[in-house]
Amino acid sequence: MLLVLCVDLDDDLGRKTGFSTPVIGREPVEEAAVALATADPEDSDVNVIFQGLSIYDDLAGRDESVEVAVVTGTEGSDVEANRQVGREVDTVLANIATAEDVTALVITDGAQDESVIPVIRSRVPIDGVRRVVVRQAQNLESMYYTIKQVLDDPETRGTVLIPLGILLLIYPLALIGSAMEWPGFVLGTTSALLGLYLISRGLGLGDRLDVAVERARRSLYAGRTTLLAYVVAATLFVLGGVSGMNTLEQTEAVHGDLEIPTMLAALVYGSIQWLAAAGVTTSLGQITDEYIAGNLEWRYLNAPFYVVSIAIVLHAVSAFFLGLVGISYLAAALTVGTLLGIVSTLAFAVLESWYVDGESGGDGETDAEATRVDRAD
Q1: Which ranges does the record mark as transmembrane (predicted)?
Q2: Beta-bridge partners for 106
């Protein structure tokens, strides 16, 4: 018996129509093809399934022993998709009622789906592979439509547009390293903008930006304090960067050329208080939202104390490298920062245990009272 096996590696059939796979038999496969064509007429897997039906009808008309089936993988991981196809092929073979040896004719729509052929061959001998290619009119409209489809296809964006965008960025990056005249500057800027556009399309940054804006809008209307906290924290972060650069410039003015550890110490010393304020702001905003949602746990309250502890340690270390404090101050700051983190962890752990034990103790007392009542009865 020849098994005409239509392969849909990314499970367009299941995701777009809700059909349970594998689909076995002439009538069920035709229903699946019509459903997929109705849901998405542009999907190439529609042509794969109809090609399988055409081959089935041709062989059945010549009184050959033949069966048709559709197997699918999963969207995302190629490895998991191949494994899923293998499991569905096993199901198809188990449901074919025949005493004859079964061989397969695999129908795909491209090289990506053909990567599953070794998995199929390990389960059933393969007589051939048929790749379905849709013929299109060779005119300007068809070319425009093809380019539009390429830009909208996530798989193509990742494999074609990102390398092309990086290639276009090479030239402007080379121009930055040398003195440029205006013609070169214009050409380099144009190429850079085009490269950034292609990379953004390839990574789908537009869709991600839309999602981020929608989340921010929902947070704003829902009254979530996290959104306000993030805005304030971002402002504090920028102020911290400016303060750190000012401190670095003042240190260079006093000591001249600095080594890398001293430069880092100056940046940290000038910015750590602002960065700590940003961390405390975001943690308090998150704690407030968790409390309003009823999901607050005691250990969440450790976050602002941890931020303050880390800030104390970094402030003391950077000040020590700059020669502003001595070893005694550094040791005291390290001790205070460590103890603050440990004490906050222990305190909230004890409070959480007391709170949980108090609730369970109340239940236990109720059970004991119920037991005494039963005995009295």
Answers
A1: 158-176, 182-200, 221-242, 262-284, 305-324, 330-351
A2: 5, 129
Where does the pLDDT of residue 365 fall: very low under 50, low under 70, confident under 90, or very high at 90 and above?
Answer: very low
Token couple for 180? 């440029």
DSSP E strand boundaries for the chain: 2-8, 23-24, 66-72, 103-108, 126-131
Residues, the chain:
377
Residues 218/199, Cβ–Cβ less than 8 Å: no
Query: In this structure, are residues 128 and 149 in contact, taking their beta carbons and an 8 Å threshold?
Result: no
If asked whether residues 227 and 359 sit together in one domain, one would say yes
Strands 66-72 and 2-8: parallel
Q: Look up tokens 């496969």; give the residue.
A: 29
Q: For residues 30 and 102, state if they share a domain.
A: yes
Q: Nearest-CA neighbor of 275 among 237, 245, 312, 313?
A: 237
According to the model, what pLDDT value does residue 358 have? 59
Q: Where are the alpha helices (DSSP H) in 162-204?
A: 162-176, 182-203
Within a domain: residue 213? Answer: no
Q: Are residues 302 and 361 in the same domain?
A: yes
- Give the Å distances, CA to CA, from 247 to 170, 266, 270: 36, 6, 5
CA gap 112, 104 in Å, rounded: 19
Over the chain, what is the mean pLDDT?
81
Q: Determine the Cα–Cα distance for residues 99 and 110; give it in Å rounded to an integer.
A: 33
- Distances in Å between the alpha carbon of 293 and those of 98, 224, 297? 60, 10, 11
- Establish if 13 belongs to a structural domain: yes
In the sheet with 103-108, reading across from the earlier edge strand, the strands are 23-24, 66-72, 2-8, 103-108, 126-131
Gyration radius of the chain over CA positions: 33
Q: Which helix (H) or strand (E) holds 126?
A: strand 126-131
Q: 115 lies in a domain? A: yes
pLDDT confidence of residue 92: 92
Query: How many domains does the chain fold into?
Result: 3
Neighbour tally for 174: CB within 10 Å = 10
User: Region 55-81: what's the mean pLDDT?
Assistant: 89
The answer to whether the beta carbons of residues 287 and 245 sit under 8 Å apart is no
Phi/psi of residue 66, each to 5°?
A: -150, 150
Is 212 within a domain? no
